[in-house]
Amino acid sequence: MIDPIEFIHNASSISKKSMNRLKLKSNPFSEKPIRGNTKFFVGRNSELSEIADILGAAQYGSVANAAIVGTKGIGKSSILNILYYAAKRHGHWIVQLEASQVTARQFLIQLMHSIIGDNLFSVDGTLSTNYMEHSKKIIEIYRRLNTYSDKTPVHYPREKIERDLKYLLHNVKEEGKLCVILVDEADQFAKRSCLGLLQFFHSFLYEDDILAFFAGPPTMMEDLTKISPAIRDRIPKVINMPPLDKVEAHDLILRRLEDVHTNGASEYDPFTPESIEKIIEECDGIPRRIIMTCSEAISIGLKNSSTIVDEAMVESALKKLGISVGHQILNHLTPAQSKIVRAMADLGGSSTVTELSGVLNNSPGTIGTHLSDIYEMGYVYKERDGYNVYYTLSKELKDVLIIEKDE
């Protein structure tokens, strides 16, 4: 009978020895966004320059809210984290949120809680001496926020929340300081149920000293303005995040490897030159995909007790990651949506609503509605060719549906 503690101890010791065989102290490829530590951050000079211009102008009264847009894994969260620490260094109030709260009231609760907790309290959890003049009111608001529950909506009505928020911004915040609000995954607001929240933003984003950055996919602004056209005027700046170029992609891998190399390792150890080129070629300059592929390839090298990570291991990593993500997407789809993407795979991965309607014997209106929902989730892409709009499966779905079908 195997002792489980002994088994884990022995297995982890073997992994450590195998890691040293690959000339690494540890696996340096983490998917977590950069938080304050910028040594692994590469490129983005033009995007950082745009953000610096927006922040600098806002400090002198010329506020222009911005959208940061790009495909999944392109580095939007890392840019927001860098912006968070840059604004902190300037002494501004800074709030970082995810667009998980779908009503204006819920969002306001989250926003105020973060404003007070992240900016008015010291590290030890006590109110900063800078705000003692308003201590009674601040603590009263914070206590109310902490006891808030959706089940008791009358407990903290929206009118009262908005009054308290204005009190913090107009009476408590120091003059000349901004309240910088960073909202990740802001495409979640592009739903009919969020119309009230977008209407709130119409006036809120015109408040003095409020600077907001909304991060989301390339179509985010188009999708938001479909729900509420006026929001386009409130977010006049759009910062596009393109893929990394080849030099930047090499630099991303190299910086992480150098950080954990053992003595005597050369620059790209344990990767062979061919495996590095394979990663750069297949990952299309998407940082998260580069990082995930490198991490998975190292794991395969460890399991094989190898001294190198070669091109075959990278190919295995790419295939495993593609299938894994693809299956997660399929599990996320409804049965009707799943039928549509499988029919698209049968048609080669790209088709029109009319073609799918004929194959599935369903009305174009129904097919179009389902495809719009799948498109909003980022699992298919669309492109106009003359009078026709073609929907195309994402690479992850192609890896599952088309490759498996061929096999």
From TrEMBL:
Segments forming domain AAA+ ATPase: 62-245
Cited SMART domains: AAA (SM00382), HTH_ARSR (SM00418)
Any one Gene Ontology molecular-function term assigned to this protein's record: DNA-binding transcription factor activity
Every HTH arsR-type domain range: 328-406
Superkingdom to which the source organism belongs: Archaea
UniProt cross-references to InterPro entries, sorted A to Z: AAA+_ATPase, AAA_16, ArsR-like_HTH, ExeA_AAA_ATPase_DNA-bind, HTH_ArsR_DNA-bd_dom, P-loop_NTPase, WH-like_DNA-bd_sf, WH_DNA-bd_sf
UniProt xrefs under SUPFAM superfamilies: P-loop containing nucleoside triphosphate hydrolases (SSF52540), Winged helix' DNA-binding domain (SSF46785)
CDD domains: HTH_ARSR (cd00090)
Annotated PANTHER family: GENERAL SECRETION PATHWAY PROTEIN A-RELATED, PHOSPHORIBULOKINASE _ URIDINE KINASE FAMILY
Protein name in the entry: Transcriptional regulator, ArsR family
Species name: Methanococcus voltae (strain ATCC BAA-1334 / A3)
Organism classification: Archaea, Methanobacteriati, Methanobacteriota, Methanomada group, Methanococci
